[in-house]
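re: ur msg from earlier - yeah i can do the zinc ion complex, just paste it... oh wait u already did. ok heres what im feeding in:
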Amino acid sequence: MDAVLQAKRNELMARWQEIYDLTGIAALLNWDQSTYMPEGGGVARGRQLALLERLAHERRTDPAIGRLLDVLQPYAESLPADADDAAHLRVMRKIYERSIRIPADFAAEFAEHTANSYMAWVAARPQNDFAAVRPYLQKTLDMSRQMAEFFPGYAHIADPLIDFADEGMTVAIIRPLFEELRQALAPLVATISQRAPVDDSFLHRHYPKAQQLAFSAPIIQAFGYDFTRGRQDETHHPFMTKFAHDDVRITTRVDEYDLSNALFSTLHEAGHALYELGIDPAYASTALDSGASAGVHESQSRLWENIVGRSRRFWEHYYPALQAAFPAQLADVEVDAFHRAVNRVTPSLIRTEADEVTYNLHVIIRFGLELELLEGKLTIDDLPAAWHARYEENLGVCAPDDRDGVLQDVHWFGGPIGGSFQGYTLGNIMASQFYAAALAAHPEIEDEIGAGRFTTLHTWLRDNIYCHGAKYTPQALLERVTGQPLTLTPYLNYLRIKYSAIYGPL
Ligand code: ZN
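and the outut:
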């Protein structure tokens, strides 16, 4: 690479670092807003975040970035596909081109609309007032369609919106995959609901907050979460956020009458954080310093939360410590009963509280509704009734109102309709696929989990998935790591084996 090109490359990387830092500063302000900010800070905080977003957008769409990318294109093409610089340039170009296709006026209008829509939702949900959000939702749908139209050439109108979150995924890939999954899950749910119910009442005894937090912190540390590069604070809705390569934080919410809540959300968010913290330090503050996609990210949170954290082996090790932390609450509960309780399967109304077996049905319902809305086959007016009908059909339950129906998730009130939900189920599927590959390479992982040791698993995940950051597309990463494209088999095997042990042969 000659000196002139080298200088151009360095200029591009320096410009990108400013975009990265503006994003990190916005994340810090958002984190503060959700954790410690006094109520009075709200108005100014909204203004500050809008300013940062405007500055980041100006820098992302600066024509100078386009010129630098063009000058460096022959260099990118001269490199082996596997080279880091080829990936840097590919990802920066993808983000740049996506940003310039959406007109600045539209982006500003959409940001303002979603802020208003979110506030309307916050007020409407407790009141069970769908009519109050109806006009906002209609505008969100109209603008989501317009947003897709900025990316012509798609096969399905949802494809561009899906691609924002899960690059390379399309309706043509996801729809048949989800249908196959739905058909496999329905009989599983039906059979389980005929088996003896699992008692989880003891999870709802009184568990003081301080002991709950003291119990989970050493576990995520054992997973590999580094408290010198992160911290945990309390919030209303748990999330992971990244301010910089070496500052990746998690938040949790504690319910003193639901032991599962903080415990498993902590393991979940720690999984997201381990991914970000495990990215190659050489990629720090570049376009590659983030996960590969929403689905791959979710595969890591679910792997640590469910495959590890809700496994029998895991609790053989940790249950004595849990009992010691809560002697009065758990003295009469055996490890077997505890393991069954934290894996209790029951069709329910709320996605975020759903068990592993029914969870994907919640996602599949939403994904299907999004497609029909975008296709114009379903109107906003008919959405609440369609929601209830799908729940009745797929889960055999029906919410008494819209509060626990169409108003339950923030997604459609804080972003576009389309592309918001598929990542959760793609993540579940990929989690099992990745885990099967880890076990094939290191069969000792299960014994180590039973001994409270996670180094082999964490190291394997870091070296095969985390370290690459956004270098590979999700599908390229999956094939590289597992030797296979996205496939349901490991996931269905996992569910069948795990839940047969709990509920009897399935
Ligand atoms: Zn997650």
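cool cool. The mean pLDDT is 96. ping me if u need the other ligands too
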